[in-house]
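Researcher: Can you fold this with zinc ion in place?
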Amino acid sequence: MAKTKTTFFCQNCGAQSPKWLGKCPSCGEWNTFVEEIVQKEESGRGTWKQATSKEKRATAPRRLKEINFEEQPRLVTHDMELDRVLGGGIVPGSLVLIGGEPGIGKSTLMLQIALMLNQTKVLYVSGEESESQIKMRAERMPLDSDNCFVLSETNTQTIFQQIEQLNPDILVIDSIQTLHSKHVESAAGSVSQVRECTAELMKFAKETGTPVFLVGHITKDGAIAGPKVLEHMVDTVLQFEGDRHLSYRILRTSKNRFGSTHELGIYEMRTEGLRPVANPSEILLTQREELLNGVAIGAMMEGNRPLLIEIQSLVSPATYGTPQRSSTGHDAKRLNMLLAVLEKRGGMRLGQQDVFLNVAGGLRVDDPALDLAVCASLISSYEDTPVPADLCFAGEVGLGGEVRAVHRIENRIAEAEKLGFKRIMVSKYAVKGLDVNKYKIKVIQVSKLEEMYQGLFT
Ligand SMILES: [Zn+2]
């Protein structure tokens, strides 16, 4: 029997230390080090042993131009939102992590995709639910597949044995925190266990070219180890977010070795599963009968997709001491900057006002093109006058109160037109060389905040 070896792991970021530390030197969190037993076998560390390797790996260096590169075709899932966030489908041999809070719908999404790919053999391994529980969930979905296999198992060695027999085209692990490998002694869900299991699955994915999806739970306080450590190991990280009380879910790419990280997928949670929302602007804009003060619509870009989004603000005299500044879904520093610009260049007296800003739909936005909509919404609330319903905005605001050009203005204008807006206010520098008369929507060109203000309530 080998001597028991233990190491201390930071449960937040996965940093290792031979002795206990009060403060993690790597992430700065206090009291996160936990002792874990790491007892590794002398030989046979790799549990995925593929005797016949499909391609002989060259061990000697080769000239770059002598290397033949054939791009393997991606597997298209028929779920447009997922395909988009993955950068155009599933890449063979990729390791994809889907992280999110418990109960947000990660398992539902993965099961639904497994059923949707009815021409592809999918093995869905669950350490969370029994086979009959998964069946019950699948029954609610209007999908059917002969190629979806379910395994309720948590031991990686057993899982690999089953894989060798079944030979699936896609592997789904729900969730990585429930797995344990016999090569590490510590409990399932601990940093060393999660790391070991992921390493084994990565080896499997790379050697066989099988895509692997890992579901990973994140708690609000980050107490469960895993996703942060995992993020460095996997190829793609997708975040599944949304308010559990709202029916909309957002799938966001936060890391992708095979595509852009700015993509966004939107789903609606229904009893029969998650429905991809093809036209998100329609759900992000509140349908309402009467005009409200402090509401303005901005045209933003998320990745390659234009979205129209509602910015709401409330400006009211501060009752207690220091005025409050609060923003939900929008950068607070950016809001403060815009408030300063409005105060200095627009002559608005905001110093004694509470300001609350909210991005509707629970979205987090960082596109500077929303500046103009934010300013319009603040002015509207300050003046107690609603912004006309047929008007929307796309422009960045500079420190001098100038309205600056934003990229891909054509897409934004086209989206606004598609959604029935009659007028869009943009920077006059953005439409240089663009024939604005070809649009049905009226393109109002402004260069300064004053010009925006003049045209705001007309
Ligand atoms: Zn740490």
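Model: Folded with zinc ion in place. Residues 10, 12-13, 15, 24, 26-27, 29, 32 surround zinc ion (CB under 6 Å).
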